[in-house]
Amino acid sequence: MDSNYSAVPPKDGFVELQLKDGDFESDLDRENGFLKRVNPDDPELDDDIDFDNLPLIFGDGNKSGSGIHGAVFNLTTTIVGAGIMALPAAMKVLGLILGFLLIILIGVLSEISVELLIRFSVQCNGISYGDVVQAAMGKTARIVSEICIIVNNAGVLVVYLIIIGDVMSGSLHHIGVFDQWLGHGFWDHRKVVVLIFLVIFLAPLCALDKIDSLSLTSAASVALAVIFVFVAIFVAFVKFVEGKIEIPKMTPNFGSENSILDLFVVIPVMTNAYVCHFNVPPIYNELEGRSPQKMYRVGRVTTVICVLVYASTAISGYLLFGKETESDVLTNFDKDLGIRFSSALTYIVRVGYVFHLILVFPVIHFSLRQAVDALFFKDRVPLTESRKRCLALTMVLLGLIYLGSTVVPNIWTAFKFTGATTAVSLGFTFPSLVALRLSKEGNRLSNTERSLCWFMLILAITVSVLGVFGNVYSIKKLS
Hints:
It holds the Pfam family Aa_trans. Its main location: membrane. The chain has one domain: Amino acid/polyamine transporter I (Up-down Bundle). The protein is built from 15 helices and 4 strands. It has helices at residues 68-79, 83-94, 96-124, 129-137, 139-169, 177-182, 190-206, 215-241, 257-272, 280-285, 292-321, 342-376, 387-405, 411-438, 447-478, and strands at 5-11, 14-19, 28-29, 34-35. The strands form 2 sheets. Strands 1-2 form a two-stranded antiparallel ribbon. Strands 3-4 form a two-stranded antiparallel ribbon. α7 packs antiparallel against α13 (387-405) and α8 runs parallel beside α11 (292-321). The longest helix is centred in the C-terminal third of the chain and has 35 residues, at 342-376.
């Protein structure tokens, strides 16, 4: 049978085919490694091409990767991390009504900014968050965005280690799981416990170099988060039926200077809870059969999941503990909940959420490592092609994050700082500026979209100013 291919002498037991006489050589897309699409009705097409000999299937270069479910799990995991633990404390400051409305509002605005980021990532062929920012605003803006990713993600990962230490080895005012199980021992030393968790569980997962490799662990982490939410709702419902729930605060208190100051710092904490934008481009680029419409669907499903999880956790957590709600509500679960099987439920909640954080950790670390590599090794080969550099960066970053977890006092401190600065910049400021800038180059915004961009930009600046002011004022007051 006639063929356009000839056999090449086998290597290592495999038979390789190559094109005869360079047939179709001009039709190969060298950049993507597949045949260019050919329109048979193109008037400029060479009449000598025999379409009967063309391949039956034209590749789009993206047949492998994660499906929509895997992308949803990865994006949901990026969002639902430690931020969920600070929301009941935020609800204590804001009251149930305002707190619930803000959870919905910030979630909707975050989803809009994600869709804008996807849309303009496709327009400028950006493979990372920094690429999109550079296409819109130049190299300096890209460097600033990568620094924001590094500070934000490093702060979030420090928070994860703090929570793991608080839960497993205890803190000044709370007893740890290991103390309850095993009594006193070396596990009382949180630095030792955190280091063991870091080496045994976190380092192997962080060594993976593709985010779609984490789809299964992300699915498991979402399941563990849902278990936590269901247990919290169940306990709150039982105590409500038994009349053991105090009447909650419905609106914020404006009667004192401290109350107003708390409002300044609590909103950045809530905006921090929805930041996932740094992982949107890599998740999109590893999406099987990717298209903007598919990624929009991923973003919308993720937003619905996160709003439900956040609202349920914030309300049930605040109802359970009221005025005693800690900045990390997980530490409140070290005592008797006042219902049957209380001890078993507290262990399920605490240990389950520790493992949730273990599975979330590598997803956040992935973008942190990418940003560091882009900032310091921009001209080197891609990180996925340099295993040594990937492992070296992973080890250095894990070491620095561990040191940070021994210095930062609690998660509220970390969230107040990152929420007022880097988180709001990554979630709202940069996506709005990118959309406004790149829309002038062809992909026009509607009047509604343009108004939303300006609203998010003004909101981001306001949250940053108030958050920084509140933090500085708090520090001065304490000193």
